[in-house]
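Hi support team,

I've been running sequence recovery on a batch of backbones for a student project. Most finish fine, but this one hangs at about 90% for roughly twenty minutes before it completes. I'm not sure whether the input is malformed or the queue is just slow. I've pasted the structure tokens below so you can try to reproduce it. Let me know if you need the job ID as well.

Thanks,
M.K.
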């Protein structure tokens, strides 16, 4: 089995790559980090570098898809604090659609895309099933929904399997320092206080290593259509912050209510786990 992995050195991509090491696959990795060493990954047969994956030519896309069975497309703009309303989402959407067209022309058997829980209608306080209504509020999630709907119909018409992994709230190895859990750990480990909202919002948190395994397993299995990459369990931000603070014995550094709650934030975002269908 030959797998093409985009975004191979990213926060999620690195964990998918790690999980694929235990599988009987050969990997063609696409990366923007030319100095990154893939030497520890024994089943990577080729590394292709790109300055900007989403602006490459159709000929380039076709060349990297040659002799590939499964594509796991993780690349997308995701800089914390900027990605939700960045116009770069439109560049990613356009490039993804061009890439998918070239993949189909090259004879790929399965295309795996990466979505987000933000695609769902988050105005309800119900667990999110894969067929729950969609209602994206950001340019990021709107672009993801556009990719999901377009590629679902396109690959159906082409007779190609299509899987769409919707990722919930991830944390863990390689996490950007600006993200909540990394920020908490950095502040608490240095003995610095941190201003937080009330912490009442409930979220579905999942270790990125587990997410990488779920994505790899579903890609190599028989799953198609939407797929929730989540824990299936909810906990409040207050509960999470206090649990982390207890590791340092410093709940006193958590200033709940020092920041106002964002009224546009959904109060409850918890998914229903999708079962892996083994091949």
């Amino acid at each position: 089995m030959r797998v093409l992995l985009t975004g191979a050195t990213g926060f999620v991509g690195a964990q998918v790559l790690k999980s694929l090491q235990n599988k009987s696959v050969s990997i063609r990795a696409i990366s923007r980090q030319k100095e990154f060493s893939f030497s520890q990954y024994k089943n990577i047969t080729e590394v292709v570098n790109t300055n900007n994956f989403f602006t490459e030519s159709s000929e380039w896309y076709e060349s990297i898809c040659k002799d590939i069975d499964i594509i796991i497309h993780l690349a997308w703009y995701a800089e914390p604090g900027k990605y939700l309303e960045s116009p770069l989402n439109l560049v990613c959407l356009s490039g993804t659609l061009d890439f998918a067209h070239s993949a189909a022309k090259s004879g790929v058997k399965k295309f795996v895309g990466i979505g987000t829980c933000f695609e769902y209608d988050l105005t309800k306080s119900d667990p999110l099933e894969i067929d729950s209504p969609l209602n994206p509020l950001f340019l990021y999630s709107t672009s993801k929904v556009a990719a999901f709907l377009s590629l679902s119909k396109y690959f159906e018409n082409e007779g190609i399997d299509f899987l769409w992994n919707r990722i919930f709230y991830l944390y863990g190895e390689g996490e950007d320092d600006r993200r909540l859990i990394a920020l908490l750990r950095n502040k608490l480990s240095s003995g610095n206080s941190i201003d937080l909202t009330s912490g009442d919002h409930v979220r579905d948190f999942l270790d990125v290593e587990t997410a990488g395994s779920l994505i790899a397993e579903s890609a190599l299995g028989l799953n198609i259509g939407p797929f929730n990459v989540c824990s299936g369990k909810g906990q409040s931000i207050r509960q999470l912050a206090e649990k982390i603070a207890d590791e340092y014995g410093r709940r006193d550094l958590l200033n709940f209510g020092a920041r106002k709650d964002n009224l546009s934030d959904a109060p409850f975002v918890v998914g229903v786990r999708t079962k892996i269908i083994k091949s």
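--
Follow-up from support: It reproduced on our side and the slowdown came from queue contention, not your input. The chain has a mean pLDDT of 96. No action needed from you.
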